[in-house]
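User: I'm curious what two different proteins look like when written out as structure tokens. Can you demonstrate?

Assistant: Sure. I'll show them one after the other, since each token string lines up with its own sequence. Here's the first protein:
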Amino acid sequence: MLYPAPQKRRAMPEAMKSPAYMSGFGNDFETEALPGALPQGQNSPQRCPYGLYAEQLSGSPFTAPRGQNERSWLYRMRPSVRHVGRFHKIDLPYWKTAPHHVDHALPLGQLRWNPSPIPTEALTFLTGLKTMTTCGDVNTQTGMAAHVYAATQPMTDEYFYNADGELLIVPETGGLSIATEFGLIEAGPGDIALIPRGVKFKAAPVDGPSRGYVCENYGAKFRLPERGPIGANCLANPRDFKIPVAAYEDKETPCRITVKWCGGFHQTQIDHSPLDVVAWHGNYAPCKYDLRTFSPVGAILFDHPDPSIFTVLTAPSGEAGTANVDFVIFPERWLVAEHSFRPPWYHMNIMSEFMGLIYGRYDAKAEGFAPGGMSLHNCMLPHGPDTQAFEAASTAALAPVKLTNTLAFMFETRFPQHLTRYAAELETLQPDYPDCWSGLEKHFDPAKREPT
């Protein structure tokens, strides 16, 4: 049974059936599920209230600068050393980790996949996760992996934590209820959930099967991008990120914990739930975010700005302005630019772009890119609007137009993304995808200076 944190603003039922949240990104929070469970004035008293143990979970080195130092103090029934026993190796054959280079028959090119059908067999979030691309090196904590997941059953007595990186979960069909050490998170299509490295959790589909995407970030933790000349507001505002209040699971039954470490999977049996944190404080915690609260900015006179203006979260690398991973969205917005080609322009890019569609239609690829589908445009491979989108945008009356019922996203990284064998051999791969540009004919005429 999950027991909620007492709320000052509203009464909660004894057994919490829905999550409760605090607001803010990167804030220092404190929350307790029992009155007085959180020690005051110090982190590690000689004896904690309620017979709890004090334990620190660090998401950064101890000596990281103050603005980048991340840690939380957890007050739990048992320390984490009791949440692990003797491990044995297990295989999750579809979850791959960089460096992962395999031989396959697929040549270089722009790639796109139709959505895969939601499976009918019993799959949890872990067993239903499949890797599409990897890049970088988990051993040096650089790069990322792009996954898809399909969950049809809950992780009832199964728990997981990832020592390799944080997980950015992007549901596309159905919701996920994610019970973590810090409390409960519920995320559906249009939301994201961010689970930091080392945080234990279990996931359950809500209202039927859940399908979506996952970015596994091996590098520096996701943070909000700098706004620069945009100033203090717009884009993803910190107040719209929701952090769970403390909620614990007091369960003395056989349970399994799986740990991902340097690409391998290790499992241990314990006799209790590891989600036993009764109170916590700090700034290292899971969160959720409603992508529909993103406040986009854009051109209000002419031209199409770079897609970086749609960055929700960024994980920086050691090189200024070059991300280990950017999480970018293309949400509902007004298009008002005058005498301009309004869709994204044609380009070649040093970055590698893995895209997915959560709902609606994507304006640069109105056909062939469906919700649950994916595309991959690797570094220095040209891409841009298909023929239909080009023709429509080149001849459209440039009145203000609102793009509605649309939400696409991109995992963009500085590293080349290598396909897994699963991705290369997936039946939903579109062999004719490059043909979407075949209708872009030559219109050059040296005798005509003015556009026709």
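Here's a second, unrelated protein for contrast:
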Amino acid sequence: MFKWLSGKKAEETPKVHSLDLEELKEQLKTELNVGADLVFRTLKRDGEKLIFCLIDSLIDSTKLDEVVIKSIMNQKEIEWSCEGISKVLPMASIHAVNQLGEVVQGINQGKVYIYSEGQPYGILADVSKNLVRGLEKAETESLVYGPKISFTESLQSNINILRNNIKDEDLCTEDLTVGKRSKTKAKIVYIRGIADEQIVNTFKQRLNELELDYIPGTTVLGQYIESNSWTVFPQLMTTELPDRISIALYRGKVAVLMDRSPDALYGPTSFFAFFESTEDVYMRWNMGLFLRLLRLVATFISVLLTPAYVAVLTYHYEVIPSPLLLSLGESRARVPFPPVFETLLLEFVIELLREAGARLPTKVGQTIGIVGGIIIGQAAVQAGFTSNILIIILCLSALGSFTTPSYLMGTAIRLIRFPIILMAGLWGGIGIMIAFCFFIIHLLRLETIGGPYLTPIYPARIKDIGYSFFKLPPQYLSFRPLTNRTKDKERFPKKKAKQKKDVDE
């Protein structure tokens, strides 16, 4: 069976059956403008001509010869029309078209256009070359427990992985095209009956309103549909783990996948969701709770420890215990810089080491990160550029920022540390509180798709705390998050949790 495409571009481009073969070839050469890659092949039979138009670098030549051309040549009695050719082609993806614009778009996607002169329609058959890497272990989101398979750059493969994970007949995928020139395929994924229609429609509206010529990936796409583009905090989650998407969909969230992008995007996402790892779901609830709280405490330390050092040494010597004050004095005796400049200098060096380690090849990057940090730190102390205590504090702050499961949120945490350090150098503890309050107010004003960014703290939703920075035993999470405004609010009836408790007793 093949699909008939309605002529959406009838007013813009001519119909194919109004052109003879030579005119059609000239029009395709003009529209496609790909030079020698544009190939025309012709079959002749009793005065009839059947042409095949394709871009050689995009198609699988074996599939074209063995599946398409050979199937047509072996059936000598068939009529060279859409109905006749479609009956002999053993392919699922066949479309009948008669608009030149649709033909050009199909050929650009790796399809072959088959046309017999005088026929009202031609056929687009998918013979594209599948440039897909195999399923591999996730690189940016390492796990101890849980599935470790990651998405690939193929949209179809990613949808297949999701459908293997979610055997739900209500799993919905809706096609989109992003980029006026690139025409990249994308899909909105959600579970009908769980996801709120308003959230789904918000995603559709924001994606359809985009008038960009090219979007390279889902991380860039998320920046265009976020509620606030000026903030450093990400408002939509990106992940390469299909299992994380499956969990999010069952919680009422909506995901977006793009072709040629190995990451998926989903929302709505609160601030605390960026500190949740997929691994937490598979661990015992008390272990997951401990790790989640550890990440939040580490983030708090990462943001405030270094500014507190600057504020104390600049304005608040009286809060330092006497034994430690003596040690600090000896450590800073040879340092010629004020604490704020010393701290910013060392923070800048650490960011340089981190960026160099990330950009160099893996083995070289690890060596630079470890050896470079040790050598530079020791040399800086011996040269009198910094103190031993500051090196320890900076290491703790860096480690705290690296505990965040989300790379984007970890980068945002490191970035906001710089203005807080400057405020600490200007006004000490008061400056830290001013900067900290500014960021809290900023987070309170932020919105993600579907609701406030700081939920369930603001607005207060006590039931959703088990899905944020706190974790409850799984049998007590019989409801889905209220923040997502899900249609089906229950994961399982509450009486089952009570029965399980009675049996255990």
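A detail about the second structure: Residues 1-11 have pLDDT under 50 and may be disordered.
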